[in-house]
Amino acid sequence: MDLNSHRRARRMPRPREVRAAAALAALLGASHASAFFDDRLQVFVGESLTHESNLFRLSDGAPGVSDKGDTYHATTVGFNLDTPVSRQRFQVGADWSQVRYNRYSSLDHTEHNGRLNWLWQGGDQWSGNLGYTESKTLASFLNFTGSTAPDPLRTQILSGSANYLLTPRWQLQAIGSEMHQRNELSVRQSQDIDLSSLQLGVNYLSPAGNSVGVDVRQDDGRYPNSLTLNGSPFSNNYVQRSVGALTNWAVTGKSHLSGRIDYLRREYDQVSSRDYSGGTFRLSYDWLATAKTSLNVVAQRDISPTEDLQTTFVLVKGVSVTPSYAFSDKLRFSASLSANQRDYLGDPGIAVGGGNLFAGRVDHLTTGMVSATYQPLRSLTLLLSAQHERRTSNISGLDYSANIINLNARLTF
User: Fold this and answer.
1) Could you tell me which of 125, 285, 117 has the C-alpha nearest to residue 205?
2) d(CA 259, CA 7)
3) Mean pLDDT of the chain
4) 413 and 406 in contact (C-beta within 8 Å)?
5) C-alpha to C-alpha distance for 232 and 234, rounded to whole angstroms
6) Tens digit of pLDDT for each residue in 181-190?
7) Who wins on pLDDT, 307 or 223?
8) How many other CB atoms sit within 10 Å of the CB of residue 215?
9) Taking phi first (over 0 means left), then psi (-120 to 50 degrees means alpha), and beta for anything else, what does residue 329 get?
10) How far apart are CA 308 and CA 145, in angstroms?
11) Which of the four pLDDT bands, split at 50, 70 and 90, describes residue 29?
12) Confidence band for 195, pLDDT divided at 50, 70 and 90
């Protein structure tokens, strides 16, 4: 697609955009947040302005696109409700955003997020949650190499958990979820997935509030739209089983460690040479150096779901470091740096001798960001951030770099 055909001069503001901006300006003049239902209900509005230098994550000299950057704005409205009823707690929230691009108007869209959650309690021994989330937004261009077509992506997740205290120190736990993900862009519908997960475990709870545990898990991945290889339908369905150990532990009064280590095996319905087994982990360490200074470090080796047509899963290995400093109660500065290696595995075309162009693909993705958050009023939050992304790959034409600057204002009342 030649997106230069969408290029145009900056548009005059639409009437609804003018009304939204005027309403937001009036609200920003308020000096105090209003309270609804004893602060159990929060209503918020927001406006953000973003510029990306490489919107489609394309390499230099990519054909058909002479200008890869664009500026876009988003207007958001939403609410959150958190209300207790006896020993139960009910949480409801939703937000809607209208996103408009200055140059590439084909990407204009409206996105939404919604959630329902019931934190339930049964006597002194039973507890858990039952929840549902739904979102619709544009799929990322990060992995869908070379595409400039918008793909609205809908994700629905139904989840629940049940905890039972055998004793004050030992807890049994069951967690289940059902996820459905659908792409509107026809060329990406082979990536539609239904994922069912069940996890059973036992945890030890220390008197100090720390915990350690072990669990087993099974994930069943089903792709409703089959691939076609060599003229025949091909199924990407799989079963993944794992056993793991986890912890949530206060190392000192100012530091905290959480994470898990697993051994997993993924088996596919077709072509066993694609099967994978190995260890994974994710560890997060938080350190409160002073009352104003904190540090978070995350290290991981984990499998991420597919986001690309040429693969079935990605093995991600990396580390991130995020320091932050509060200059005052109203002003906070933070930064982050992450480096990941992404190994693209399980390609069905490779497994059956298809000779896929992306065989053995390995990417290195580095991201750095700095941000400042200013809260001049209890009801008003301003955020300014700058981010740089860089990807290098062993496959020609996949390298890219991008700079992103964002200004966001949010008012809660």
Assistant:
1) 125
2) 47
3) 87
4) no
5) 6
6) 999 998 888 8
7) 223
8) 19
9) alpha
10) 8
11) very low
12) very high
- Tell the burial category of 9 from Cβ atoms under 10 Å away from its Cβ (0-12, 13-18, 19+): exposed
Q: Around Cβ 278, how many Cβ atoms within 10 Å?
A: 12
Question: What burial class does residue 145 get, using C-beta atoms within 10 Å of its C-beta: 0-12 exposed, 13-18 middle, 19+ buried?
Answer: buried
Tokens of 246: 């986890």
Tokens of residue 95, six digits: 């937000």
Alpha carbon separation from 138 to 183, 238, 384 (Å, rounded): 9, 26, 23
> Which residues have a Cβ under 8 Å from the Cβ of 16 and sit 6 or more positions away?
none
On the CB side of 95, how many CA atoms lie within 13 Å of its CA? Answer: 19
In 3D space, the residue among 300, 257, 258, 298 whose CA is nearest the CA of residue 279 turns out to be 300
What is the C-alpha separation between 299 and 283, in angstroms, rounded? 5
Distance separating alpha carbons of residues 112 and 338, to the nearest angstrom: 28
